[in-house]
Specification:
Blueprint lengths: L6 E7 L3 H12 L4 E4 L11 E2 L8 E2 H14 L3 E3 L3 E7 L2 E6 L4 E9 L21 E2 L2 H4 L7 E5 L3 H10 L5 E6 L6 H8 L4 E4 L3 E5 L6 E4 L4 E2 L3 E4 L6 H4 L27 E3 L10 H23 L5
Parallel strand pairs: 1-2, 1-8, 2-5, 8-17, 9-16, 10-11, 10-16, 11-12
Antiparallel strand pairs: 3-4, 6-7, 7-8, 13-14, 14-15
Length: 306
């Protein structure tokens, strides 16, 4: 391990109810806790909540703000950055962040949610699996030597576009606004990715497979692949490369009652583990995951034989 990279006991990825509750309980166990992600990315941020015990009515934004204050009160540290990748590192986990930095953790709680934001345009559903994809890491090999487009302006989209340069002949990035860390934006600027700022995709065209995309200014880009990346790194991108077991549909992480995955040191909570999509379920799982992750980190720190 590189001693120059910051080390923490527990990293929580996700700032929704599951992630915040995990951070609260882990921090109360007197271990160092880092929470990564943007609060506005939570699925309840813009919603009203009326079926959560003891709070009626309230807003998702208020719940998240209060949870963040609680976690910070107990010592959790927040960084409004997305995680680009996670790799095993000598019994620990090394996370690469969109701002260009890295951090090493003893334990990780995955609480990113699973919602895949779609474009909602003609051709998107019909051509899914025939050129339309929601996961660069999963499908990049299918587009070697092809011309492709990545849609989105966040860290997931930028990272995906940069990654596709190793496979595709030409890579377009279509976005309305660029919302990523300066370091990643600079890497994009210096790359060969063709940017289309201020543009929206209005249709995905093709009969048996993707042939082109239509933009809102009337332009048509001839591409064979379209990667829709409208959010942060999700379950497929972060968990699957580590060998974390997913369900049959490759959407949700499998856990036991301790919220442990099959990979020691990695826990999961909230929507990422499957339905029901309820705050109460997310908070309960976050509580268990936070406690278990803290206990795991403390065991790693204990002297042998202790």
């Amino acid at each position: 391990m590189n001693p120059q990279i910051p080390h923490v006991d527990v990293v929580v990825i996700g700032t929704g109810p599951a992630g915040l509750q995990a951070a609260i309980h882990a921090a109360r166990r007197k271990v160092s806790v880092l929470v990564l992600g943007r609060q506005s990315g939570s699925s309840i941020y813009h919603h009203h909540v009326e079926n959560y015990c003891c709070l009626f009515p309230t807003t998702g934004e208020d719940i998240l703000a209060n949870g963040r204050r609680q976690a910070a009160h107990f010592g959790a540290v927040f960084r409004d950055e997305e995680v680009l990748s996670i790799a095993a590192d000598d019994g620990r986990f090394r996370l690469r962040l969109e701002g260009g930095g890295e951090v090493v953790a003893k334990a990780i709680v995955l609480a990113t949610g699973t919602a895949r934001r779609s474009l909602g345009v003609e051709g998107e559903k019909r051509l899914l699996g025939r050129g339309v994809s929601y996961c660069v890491e999963c499908d990049c090999n299918f587009f070697r030597g092809a011309e492709v487009a990545v849609v989105g302006g966040g860290s997931a989209a930028v990272h995906g576009a940069l990654a596709m340069l190793d496979y595709a002949r030409k890579v377009h990035l279509v976005f309305e606004t660029l919302e990523t860390a300066p370091a990643l934006a600079e890497e994009l600027r210096r790359s060969a990715v063709v940017q289309h700022p201020g543009r929206r995709v209005t249709a995905i065209l093709g009969e048996e497979a993707v042939e082109a995309i239509q933009l809102d200014d009337g332009a048509r880009l001839s591409v064979q692949g379209v990667f829709i990346e409208l959010g942060a790194r999700g379950v497929l991108e972060l968990a699957a490369p580590l060998g974390v077991l997913l369900d049959d549909e490759m959407k949700h992480i499998q856990t036991n009652r301790r919220m442990e995955t099959n990979v020691p040191g990695i826990y999961a909570a909230g929507d990422i583990t499957g339905p029901p999509w309820q705050v109460a379920k997310a908070v309960g799982e976050g509580c268990v995951a936070g406690l278990e992750a803290a206990a795991y980190a403390r065991r790693l720190a204990a002297p042998e034989g202790a």
